[in-house]
Structures
1.
Amino acid sequence: MMKRLLVLALPVALVACAGTGTDTRTHTLGEESLAGAFVQAPVNVAAYLMAPGPRFFIGSPYRVENVQHNPAENLTYNEVGIAGIIPFDLNGAQTTNGEVFNADQMLAAHKTLPLPSIARVTNLENGQSVVVRINNRGPFVNTRIIDVSPAAARAIGMTGNTRVQVQIMAEESILVRDATLRASGIAPTPAPAQEFGLPPEQPTPVAGGTGPFAVQLGAFFSEDSARNLANRVQHIGAAHVVSENQMFKVRISNLDAGTARSTIDTLRRNEGMSPGLLRDGRWVNADSI
């Protein structure tokens, strides 16, 4: 089936549809990946996919059916699970980051990836793939990992809930993130100092302490992805990985209120993250301190 990218504008889905009773446990791909047999050709990403959005949004941790979801910028995201189709009735609805859902565009809703992000969705039943712009939260059930627009579903032969592989496209996601930040009047985190051989300016790492606060940077099904993030932010604080509820969570722990506040501000400003905050193991509003 030949897939085509539509060149008209404006992005993605609002609320997700109801779930099914299908066993849809999500796992991170490894050597056993079902998608390993499908060799993907390069994709020309349409201009509307890469257009700046009204705002760049990550958001705070939230719960769906008693399961904690922790939005974060995860440029190694690569998961298998069930995809659904966004109802056509939502055509024209506003999305989480202020865009407008058009059922004829290649769009999707995801629980944790930044809005907007660019991802490849592969139908594991036929090997067909499509590139989508993620700019809405959902699906708000735990039986699905992503919902795609009717147009994207047609492009990969989906007629209902389908087993898929979702892979973040890191370079494209960084470009659309930076374009959105600039359009919003926010300068993306600069990196040019390294191009001229100068050491980049880094915040002073947070020292360990005995305070009651912990800042959570993200949560992953893959331990390797969690450890990669923890290693990447060691210049900010002593990030470590906690295994909890079958997920691997990246945290900077034992902070007093002032240090937790400055850590959250640094992660937002320098890393584009929207971290969560715990006090004595319980979730609290990240802006309450």
Note: The longest strand covers residues 247-255.
2.
Amino acid sequence: MHNSLLPHTSPQEAPAAIASESELEALLAEPSPHALAALQTLESDLLILGVGGKMGPTLARMAAQALSAIQSPFRVIAVARFSQPALRAKLEAWGVKTIACDLLDRTALAALPDSRNVIFMAGQKFGTTGAPSQTWAMNTYMPALVAERFIAARIVVFSTGNVYPLTPVVQGGSVERDAPEPVGEYANSCLGRERIFEHFSLTQGLRCAIMRLNYAIDLRYGVILDIALKVKNNQPVDLSMGAANVIWQGDANAQALALLNHCSSPPFVLNVTGPETVSVRRVAERFGDIFGVPARLTGSEAPTALLNNAAQAQRRFGYPRVSLHQIIEWTAAWVNAGGTMLNKPTHFEARDGRF
């Protein structure tokens, strides 16, 4: 793992800035060679469960574009409650079939079309502190229902690096063989999700891959945007969680699709994030330079942080296509231009696991 802020130069073909949300979403949906190769192996339609979150729409679009590019006979079917009709219309315009379904409803789940290829993205993080039972239902009970329903499928399971403990920054992050030690109720429920899929894998042969992700970002949300906005708005940047990992959402989605080829029993576990241990202080100072304002820093870096080591993913899939340097430059331009934002702070600085 790199311990520098900007170890890679930007690709020459990358635009200096991203001008619109439509341009951003198109960029996020570009499939990688590894994603294309995995989708060549489909033997059924691809079912994406829980598509309504921050990553799901562009993952579905990426998969649809890839299937079209390889002239596959199969479709992408995206499933969510679809409380926002506009999202459903957008997905349909991208060539994705949509089905409205409450995945906690056994009858509705049973009515979904059969598939031997599933991406499981459903879950709950924010609001855990106020409604822990709902979080546990979403993160542990729902996986049991899905595993039962699609026991013959390959399932890529979205999980999180939060299942690991805080580790010394100098160690470069947790690796897959490290024992989980989740901090807080949300992180414990996420380990519960993993254990449920592991149970069905070990007892009934379910093939799955568990993707421990932190943190996927694009220009509308994420750790880098959180820091940029604080600096731009002259708000203090808390240094207590002094380091983090990030990965461009398009790269994370491409690796999720590529993981279809790595589903196994027992489950295959993979950390997914960028190669850098990102210094919160250095990123804040960089934004201060770009915006022409001093970064207001508060507190001091603890010796530990929540960090993933994704060396195994990089050996398999290569380095992310979008570098940290490029993300910072794009984010600054996006903030300066008043680009669309989701207004969903990550709370990456929380050290007690409370979300």
Note: The longest helix spans residues 185-204.
